[in-house]
């Protein structure tokens, strides 16, 4: 989907709004310990810019809090100071911010919160940053923390005795001879042994011992230990060292006492070292790369290891008399590709992945049947307090043989209990709008190796239909239960004009017609329900009927004609019910309240005549008593909503809607302990208020546009939670998260009525009424973004959408199981249906050939009207049995066919940069589900990017930009020929974006170059360049003159051309107009949106870009009008003082543009993550903030408009206006 960029004013796209639409999902760090309480086991998960705190319960892992960070995590450790009862959390960010956090059960606000115990900046003015990643290690005795941040240097933070820490700990630097440190760890204090000097052993007992795994300049790897003398602040030779360990060694594991020493994890050998005379090793075959480890036992005798291919292994240290006698390895099974892991308890293990879904698995002592293995999730955890040894007893029978790593054979001891979907890494994506309604869905290339998949990301809630029948004319639907306490529903009531039908699930699990004698089937039902006293309620226009649920016989009925307060007969127009009350209304504004008694009577307990005709009403209970309502909400034709007390029906509060549109539906609802009043109008607007029972008042009035047609509100249950369904032309489900109302579109456009209908055959189901049908089904989990996984088993690299054939082209690399990560494997073009995602066709690329780019296009018709026939003839002459092409992409024979065009690179071992590649034209025929090679062109280099340009093909090959056309050749054939001389641009041309005659090129090292195509001359020329050097990772156009780029330092930069500049020199320079640190390594930028924009929204037409990054986050960049930008800039400054970063991390430092050479303040961008935190503030604090920023915002125009306009020329904003704008921004993503 390539939406047209809309003009946002004369300033263009200079004022931008950046927000994270989907948080990072890659797990890069995890730790287990007692953080929130001494008696609890916590799992702390680091997801790039977020911290997840979870607690282990008998039901499994339960989320405690998700904490956003003003930084990208590089290290995370739990440690316990001496004399402390619970652990502290160490954080280190990529930008050299260090913090120690403590969980406090009752903070200053009375709520649990994170408290910063220590914080400091560990950046040095001089130093070369480490290439292998920052490292942190904590001494087991909590005497020191070591950080490896710069080559040849160790930074040490000395800790105080006792449970307290300094707020700004003292640090000092020590010089290291080893430059390329791969891993490091503090060792447990050891006693003297053979091969170690007495002096070294004594020093090791008094001071921490640090073990380093490093690589020398000849690429050999070694282990060396140092004693850290805290008094002299020097590094002294440690008790032992080991030269020339396994060449692929990647991790070092400290072994606790009484065994002591360390384990070095290599690709082919696992070795244990303590002294030179206490080395033990075992082989692991075939060679594999160990990515993560976790200790099983406190004494360090068993460890879990995970390799790059997802193989899970158990390492056992066989020992006697506190001396290690040997190492044994057993393969337990295959899991996700794991980057970090934590052993929790009783055989349960958390596997954190940065290239697949993270998992919670259970280890079994005995092999599992194939159906119950790693691919079959288990049920809830019944108990995590069982004997630990029994759960992990897989080690006991491990035998002495080395395990086969990476293979699928062998017994499986691993059961997947739960998994967390991850988009990471997003290598590429497309945005599709299949229904042409302006709401896109992302299809991402995600995962690595065997965890590769397509992920379909969409905004809204999907319906999974289980049964359906054609049934036109339904005017309402309700479910009934046989008794109030039943968990399942028994009947479904359908209302039609002039009649009512009942349906029930038969013994054959078929939805069939049923009958209840007391039901009036010859009248249209206005309401049906089950009462607290096991009776059935039916309200028609003539009467309220009470029916026995057991016998089905009519017990009693009430009609307005018999009412004491009714002077003349009239019919019932509206009805609402609680479990033991009924509220009905008739013409003239008359309202009656009826009590449903246990004895089967309907007692009239209240009546009132409203000032205007009643338009809607509700008496859903809110508050502690969920069986009896104390409030009634009534909407009237006077454009008001009134709350009446029950049972006396006296007015409590009345709110004017400020509209000329009649309210069509009203609802009382309670979310997360907060009561709300919702009112839907006839024009698609929804008003909501918070109900404050202490003051009997309504507060925090909000208004949101859900559609353009009348809204009908109804309550339903799903997953044990109550939600509100708003039927309109854009059906919406209303729910709450963090005490904030949220709105998710239902991905069905015709749902008019919805009701819960949960039966034994269809548990937790819903009945959905469309224009001409009734269906039963379930809905997705209630959340904002939904992700569907399409497993591939191979790594997707690039993706393109071909609308004409309703297909997706995906180029993939298939690596055999157990292969080394450096192995190339075989590459393919796979074609999938863009709706069902079924595999339709495949094409295999040549050996040693990898795909680097893909696009879908139809060449311009200027070549000839017989392009299709010529292409067919060309295909007929191709080798390898290529078939003729009769047409393409669902187009007619008069149109040019659509092709998938794939760019490749041929990899040769001794080449630094590929010298050969291909451009392949392939045609997909939907009828035959086949791919045909139409054209293959060899080029001198790797084809890094492809795109359509004025009916021709634009390609970047190494450092040159080529333009090709589909031209007629001899014998009626067509072939790709160069349309103009290629133009060399900088180092490597990786990215392309086009608009009109302009081509924007993104270079690996030298930022952006603007080219112009001169058709008359048949040439590409350089028009302007960005003079700053930037290592680009993504590029996109914002408008004709403005371009957005992302770099390898996780920055975003906006540049703009100067067509109106006075001199040629100025016109040849691209001006930087915005800088921002987004905190994500962005792989792709594309135009699009995940939400449907309403035409009457102020931001309904702003241009927007979506991006996907390495850590699985999805972000949005939208260009705002200048007035909005200035208002949000003021709000952002105020929020910086209110929304503080944890760990003393600063917002301004976090969002500063920074790369290897310079650091500058952010400009031209609003941080939407911070601005939208305004909606999470308590109303009182929000009002206080707004009053401080815009003191005149609370004045009326008559009181002080001139004064306010003079003080704040940009405008004055009330709390309600700021809230409305923030909600408008939230609806962009």
TrEMBL record:
<dbReference type="Pfam" id="PF03178">
    <property type="entry name" value="CPSF_A"/>
</dbReference>
<feature type="domain" description="RSE1/DDB1/CPSF1 first beta-propeller">
    <location>
        <begin position="26"/>
        <end position="367"/>
    </location>
</feature>
<dbReference type="Pfam" id="PF23726">
    <property type="entry name" value="Beta-prop_RSE1_2nd"/>
</dbReference>
<dbReference type="InterPro" id="IPR018846">
    <property type="entry name" value="Beta-prop_RSE1/DDB1/CPSF1_1st"/>
</dbReference>
<dbReference type="Pfam" id="PF10433">
    <property type="entry name" value="Beta-prop_RSE1_1st"/>
</dbReference>
<feature type="domain" description="RSE1/DDB1/CPSF1 C-terminal">
    <location>
        <begin position="827"/>
        <end position="1176"/>
    </location>
</feature>
<protein>
    <recommendedName>
        <fullName>DNA damage-binding protein 1</fullName>
    </recommendedName>
</protein>
<feature type="domain" description="RSE1/DDB1/CPSF1 second beta-propeller">
    <location>
        <begin position="463"/>
        <end position="778"/>
    </location>
</feature>
<dbReference type="InterPro" id="IPR058543">
    <property type="entry name" value="Beta-prop_RSE1/DDB1/CPSF1_2nd"/>
</dbReference>
<dbReference type="InterPro" id="IPR050358">
    <property type="entry name" value="RSE1/DDB1/CFT1"/>
</dbReference>
<dbReference type="InterPro" id="IPR015943">
    <property type="entry name" value="WD40/YVTN_repeat-like_dom_sf"/>
</dbReference>
<keyword id="KW-0539">Nucleus</keyword>
<dbReference type="InterPro" id="IPR036322">
    <property type="entry name" value="WD40_repeat_dom_sf"/>
</dbReference>
<dbReference type="InterPro" id="IPR011041">
    <property type="entry name" value="Quinoprot_gluc/sorb_DH_b-prop"/>
</dbReference>
<dbReference type="InterPro" id="IPR004871">
    <property type="entry name" value="RSE1/DDB1/CPSF1_C"/>
</dbReference>
